[in-house]
Structure formats: structure tokens, C-alpha cells
Amino acid sequence: MTTMQPPFVVDLSHFDGVRPNGFTLAKAAGVVGVIHKATQGVDFTDGEYATRGPLAKAAGLLWGCYHFNTGDPVKAQVEYFFSVAKPDDQTLMALDFEDNTASEMSIEQCAEFLDLADQKLGRKLVLYGGARIREQLPTADAETREFIGAHKLWLSEYGPVANVPAPWAKYFLWQFTGDGTGPDPHDVPGLTNSKGLDVNVCGSASTLATDWAS
């Protein structure tokens, strides 16, 4: 398989391990940023989020967080996400809009979440997704499609080619591998996951630093 080249961004949750000095080792291997799960729905907090943020930033890494969608009331999800994330002006914030068969957002709820969160944050969130966006976005009205498409896309597409869905012309980040599926690398020094880490690529470290929380 094709081996992707750094710079890398890793996305983590409590399912992933961080060894002692792990973020420093990851940075030396070409990782420039970490996006960590913060919340899901209205009542789940990732127990590793609060402790890992200061460690990642101390290692010189960009820091961000994501909220995993559910079908719970959107305003309550936004409030819960912010109460746990506690973002500063350098924190990337993202909505994870992927399949959640137990309880998931509609595309209209996705737009509502982004709208409320954008206003609360004072800048646009990043939207994560792949197949579900391709399937659901065309079913929305033109105004909703335009609004969602104005957000930076964090594309989930496991494989050697990034197939960017309309209306986006390019991705902001591309998660090209995860759970051992997709091109190498599946492992990053200092970080662990028995199935394989979620690894993303960006254009360049300098551009990413500028665009991270803009």
C-alpha cells in the first residue's frame, strides 16, 4: 500500500493509549496536531480529554476536539460539548457526523448544530465525515447544502485517494487510515491502539497552523 508522508494529525479517544512522553515522541515522528474526542450526545465525556490537552500542547502540538453526533436535542448537545471542551482561541472544534445507528443526527440537525456552535465559538467549526455526508447532503435543500459546505471538511476516506464530495473543492484534513484499514502508517511512536490509529494528512505544517483555529 501507499505510505503517506508527514505532516500528520492524529485523532484520539479513550480507546487510544498515550505512553509516557508520548506526545513528544509523536511530534518527533511528524505529528503536528491532535484532535481528541471530548463528548458524545448530552451525557458522555471522554475521560482522557481533560488530561491530554495540556500534555499535547506542552509538547508543541496543535490541539483540537470533536463531538460525536447523536439524535439528542441539538442545543443540548452544543451546550454539553462546550461545557466539556472549554475551548480557547487556538482550539479546533469539530462535529463528527458519521454513522451512529443507535441514535444519529439528520443533515438538518447537523446544520443546526454547526450554526449554534459557530455562533457560540465566534468562528466556524470543522465538519468530519465521509460516506454519510455523501449520502445525506444531496437530500438537503440548497440553503442547507451551501451553509454546511462553507465549513472546512475533515474527510474520512480510507485508501490512497481522497475523493472529495461536492460542494467542497478540497479537504482541510484527510483521515486516510484507521482501525488498521488504509495505507500506512497505522502506528505512531508514543501512541497506541491495537487495531491501528486514526491518522490524517494535511497540506503543510505551516498552513495547518495558520488555518487550525481560524
What does this protein structure show overall?
The structure is a single chain. The chain is built from seven helices and eleven strands. The termini are far apart. The model has no long low-confidence stretch (mean pLDDT 95). It has a single domain (8-211), classed as TIM Barrel, CATH 3.20.20. Strand 5 (62-68), helix 3 and strand 6 form a beta-alpha-beta unit. The protein has helices at residues 22-28, 49-58, 74-85, 107-121, 131-136, 142-149, 205-211; strands spanning 8-12, 17-18, 31-40, 44-45, 62-68, 92-96, 126-129, 152-156, 173-177, 191-192, 198-201. Strands 1-3-5-6-7-8-9-11 form an eight-stranded mixed beta barrel, surrounded by four helices. With 214 residues, the protein is of the alpha/beta class.
Features:
214 residues; alpha/beta; TIM Barrel; eight-stranded mixed β-barrel; two-stranded antiparallel sheet; 7 helices
Cα-atom radius of gyration = 16 Å
How far is it from the N-terminal to the C-terminal residue, by CA? 34 Å
Number of strands: 11
Q: What's the arrangement of strands in the largest beta sheet?
A: 1-3-5-6-7-8-9-11
Q: Report the major sheet.
A: 8 strands, mixed, barrel
The assembly state of the depicted protein chains is single chain
Tell me the β content. Answer: 15-25%
Question: Which H/E pattern describes the elements?
Answer: EEHEEHEHEHEHHEEEEH
CATH class: Alpha Beta
What's the mean pLDDT score? Answer: 95
